[in-house]
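// run 5 | inverse folding | seed 20
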């Protein structure tokens, strides 16, 4: 009886061992790649600016790569199962902005208010950062943010602007989304820097 029971259980025991030793699915981790510094004449400003950590809504404040199927159910949000960002998009975006402002202008960039005082503060609210599918094989990405430039001493809001940009994705997958978001973010940051340069009061 015991021998018969053992023979019956062998397939289940083997399947359990295979499940325990099965390697997990590989996860692709992405960032925006190497920053693309463009040649640009430095501004005439010698002010200092605190670029605060960008904020994002709760649905975007994570490592997931999000997309929507506009042709199927545009109100439903999806995420790629085996692909993710190395950090939340707002954190990656913040670092890119700091690097680009520091290299493309004469403005001194301050990362933390506890280390030094800044003349101005830049607040970024990342509102949209997503891939949108028009059809099964066609998609584009969209980035939306609100930038606020504040005079630190008076806490006076100098100027505020909404930025929006779209970029076609070359492939209908996570890799295509990442590549398009990288191109779009690079262009949007260039527009943001030009706006900051124009709006900062002269020395």
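// decoded
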């Amino acid at each position: 009886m015991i021998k018969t029971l053992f023979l019956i259980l062998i397939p289940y025991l083997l399947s359990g061992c295979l499940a325990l030793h099965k390697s997990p699915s590989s996860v692709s981790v992405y960032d925006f790649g190497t920053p693309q510094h463009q040649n640009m004449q430095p501004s005439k400003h010698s002010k200092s600016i605190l670029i605060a950590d960008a904020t994002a809504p709760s649905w975007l404040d994570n490592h997931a790569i999000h997309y929507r199927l506009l042709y199927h159910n545009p109100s439903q949000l999806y995420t790629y199962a085996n692909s993710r960002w190395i950090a939340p998009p707002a954190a990656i975006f913040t670092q890119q902005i700091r690097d680009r402002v520091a290299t493309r202008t004469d403005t001194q960039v301050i990362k933390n208010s506890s280390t030094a005082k800044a003349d101005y503060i830049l607040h970024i609210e990342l509102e949209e950062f997503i891939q949108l599918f028009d059809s099964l094989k066609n998609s584009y990405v969209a980035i939306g943010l609100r930038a606020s430039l504040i005079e630190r001493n008076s806490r006076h809001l100098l100027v505020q602007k909404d930025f929006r940009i779209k970029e076609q994705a070359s492939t209908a997958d996570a890799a295509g989304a990442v590549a398009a978001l990288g191109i779009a973010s690079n262009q949007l940051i260039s527009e943001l820097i030009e706006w900051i340069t124009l709006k900062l009061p002269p020395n």
